[in-house]
Design goal:
The chain starts with a helix and ends in a 10-residue tail after the last helix. The protein is built from 28 helices and seven strands. It is mainly α. Among the domains are: 135 residues, no CATH class; 138 residues, Orthogonal Bundle (DNA polymerase, domain 1), CATH 1.10.150.130; 171 residues, hpI Integrase, Chain A, CATH 1.10.443. It is elongated. Strands 5-6-7 form a three-stranded antiparallel sheet, covered by helices on one side. It is 54% helix and 5% strand. The mean pLDDT is 89. 27% of the residues are buried.
Length: 638
């Protein structure tokens, strides 16, 4: 059979398909048949989106028809495909404009979609591509109609018994098509659509995709309820950028990222035309934390350990200044990093007496040494005495206080002894104590002067009540700033004659009870009653939480007020100064060191002496008074 005969048969089959639709315009039929025959398309079933786009543009550039005919017949193929497909009478409820409705029905027929519920993110992308390539006027209005149809289907499905939640699949998802209509409608009018598309069909690490999906699902369905604007700006969009960055830089596992990769993300953000990258920069920490907290078992191989995952006994964590995480993403020599992680794991489970703050100090000191080892290519498994001597000499050449170096040596010596005991390294027999320097104690007076106290009290009435009461507790009781922040509703007691204050001392790991002025007792119990604060509830809470006020926030807010009222011109707020002030005033009023030690909760009298300011001046004054009463001949020198 000749080629001409074959072409005629194919031409005849397409012609029959068109006629069966009821379409009768001869010019339109000729245009369609000629175009499809030229493309070797032998059935309308083989028409795809690109074919439809090409036909539309072919008609617009055809030289054998008038401009009016071009406008009319450009949509001829659309009409034929639509007439062959399923009718959607329910669309009349959603899309009133017939032209828009016809456009969507053509597309659904072309994609073989017979149920509006089957519209997915890929369909949405393809529909927008078709509209963008074939239609100019009111393009955005036409693109919206597919969203309206899908949302209509989602709303109808809400009566179904199955859960309306996202489920992970290797496919493109579009947040406006979330199966829960309340969540989906949040994004219906979002102008910038790109961050609403998350492509989990990409040929990248399955671990990465599931990590991103898990946080996305949490933010949408289970996270704190926030406005749509905040959800997009602070969570969805940063996560979208982070996923894009990880794909481009072949990051396979969020939990194993390095500091260099995190810094690279920040540099990447700086190249983007976005107004603010603050929340985007925090995206890495958010997903690292979420991933670490939600693994079935603790991932000790992670490059960041978030302490919220662990259960610590009371006293190990300072709730007013908690440490959020231990980061292991900046030590370059992998073998050294693994040994540090092993040591940190040991310390976290070591003892109820070892606080997280103390562990954090050890962690920082050991990392400081490992940074030096990174720079000099020193492996712990091949460590020598000369390596340690060179490191200590390096420290001593720096302008660092002797006490700081001694403390540092103490921490790294424990690390080295641990590695020796575990047989991770060969015994070195290194004597760290030989390198300890002699410390000369220098007393610093930090008590708050009477004049500065007077300035504070002159304006204290203008402070917010919460900050005013926190300051009064600090001033009256001489307690630590973290103890002020963690006062609980049952802290104030009265036994019929004396008012008492009860507090758990995080540093000393014990409860302390001290007498207090009845005026402070009355103020605090009235405040607690008025605000319905329960006995085990924090009196001063961090904003929008049930946790305690952060000590850093307290300092910051007080200094803002000190600036506002001109106090900071001569005095900056230093909460520990009031502890020194109380100790000094008690001593000047005749209290002995033992009494002051008990009141402050110190473990030794030597520590208490450090808190009594002006003591050297008092000794000098007593000496002068003594010698002024003696004759020279009465003084004997040994």
């Amino acid at each position: 059979m000749g080629a001409l005969k074959i072409a005629q048969i194919e031409y005849s089959y397409v012609h029959e398909e068109i006629i069966r639709t009821g379409y009768k315009e001869a010019t339109g039929i000729d245009l369609i048949e000629g175009f499809l025959l030229n493309r070797r398309i032998t059935s309308l079933d083989d028409v795809d989106l690109d074919t439809a786009i090409d036909f539309y543009n072919m008609v617009l550039t055809c030289t054998t028809i008038t401009d009016a005919q071009k406008a009319h017949f450009a949509s001829a193929l659309e009409m034929i495909i639509r007439l062959r497909g399923k009718s959607f009478p329910e669309l009349k409820e959603v899309i009133k404009d017939r032209a828009k409705r016809n456009k969507l029905e053509f597309f659904l027929a072309l994609r073989n979609i017979t149920d509006l519920a089957d519209i997915d993110a890929v369909d949405r992308v393809e529909f927008e591509r078709y509209i963008s390539n074939t239609f100019v006027a009111k393009r955005i209005e036409y693109i919206k109609i597919i969203d309206r149809a899908k949302l209509y289907a989602i709303e109808r499905s809400m009566n179904d018994l199955h859960p309306h939640v996202l489920r992970y699949e290797n496919k493109l998802i579009y947040l406006t098509y979330h199966p829960n209509i309340a969540i989906a409608r949040q994004f219906e009018y979002t102008q910038v659509k790109e961050p609403l598309f998350f492509d989990f069909s990409l040929n990248v690490s399955e671990v990465l995709k599931r990590q991103v999906f898990a946080l996305l699902k949490y933010d949408l369905e289970d996270g704190d309820k926030v406005t749509t604007h905040m959800l997009l700006q602070n969570r969805i969009t940063p996560l979208w950028y982070l996923y894009k960055y990880c794909v481009e830089h072949e990051i396979d596992d969020i939990s194993k990222v390095t500091n260099a990769e995190v810094e690279g993300f920040i540099e990447y953000l700086n190249t983007l035309p976005i107004k603010s990258t603050t929340c985007s920069r925090a995206a890495f920490k958010r997903i690292r934390k979420f991933t670490f907290l939600n693994t079935p078992t603790i991932d000790w191989d992670a490059s960041a350990w978030f302490l919220e995952r662990f259960s610590f006994t009371e006293g190990r964590v300072n709730p007013s200044n908690p440490r959020e995480a231990f980061y292991f993403d900046d030590v370059e020599i992998t073998e050294n990093l693994d040994l540090l992680k092993d040591y940190m794991k040991y310390l976290l489970g070591l003892s109820q007496r070892l606080s997280i703050t103390s562990i954090y100090m050890i962690y920082n000191n050991v990392k400081r040494m490992l940074f030096y080892f990174d720079e000099n290519g020193i492996y712990l498994t091949k460590l020598t005495k000369a390596d340690l001597e060179n490191y200590i000499n390096y420290l001593q050449r720096k302008d660092v206080r002797v006490a700081t170096i001694n403390s540092h040596l103490g921490e790294i010596s424990k690390f080295i002894y641990y590695l020796e005991a575990k047989e991770c390294i060969q015994p070195l027999g290194f004597h760290f104590e030989k390198y300890r320097g002699f410390e000369v104690y220098t007393h610093n007076d930090i008590s708050v002067s009477k004049e500065d106290q007077r300035k504070v009290f002159e304006v204290l009435g203008y402070f917010p009540e919460e900050l005013r009461l926190m300051f009064l507790n600090l001033w009256c009781l001489g307690i630590r700033v973290n103890e002020v922040c963690t006062i609980k509703g049952n802290a104030y007691l009265f036994d019929g004659s004396t008012a008492w204050f009860l507090i758990y001392q995080n540093k000393a790991k014990r409860e302390k009870r001290i007498p207090i002025p009845t005026e402070l007792y009355d103020l605090m119990t009235e405040y607690i009653k008025r605000n319905n604060i329960a006995p085990d509830e924090y009196v001063f809470k961090a904003p929008h939480t049930t946790g305690p006020y952060r000590s850093g926030t307290f300092r910051k807010q007080m200094n803002i007020l000190f600036d506002k009222y001109g106090i900071s011109e001569t005095y900056k707020f230093k909460p520990h100064g009031y502890r020194h002030t109380l100790a000094t005033e008690l001593y000047n009023d005749g209290a002995n060191i033992q009494c002051i030690r008990e009141y402050l909760g110190h473990s030794s009298e030597d520590m208490t002496k450090h808190y009594i300011d002006h003591l050297p001046n008092k000794i000098d004054k007593l000496n002068e008074e003594y010698f002024a009463t003696k004759n020279k001949e009465d003084i004997q020198w040994n």
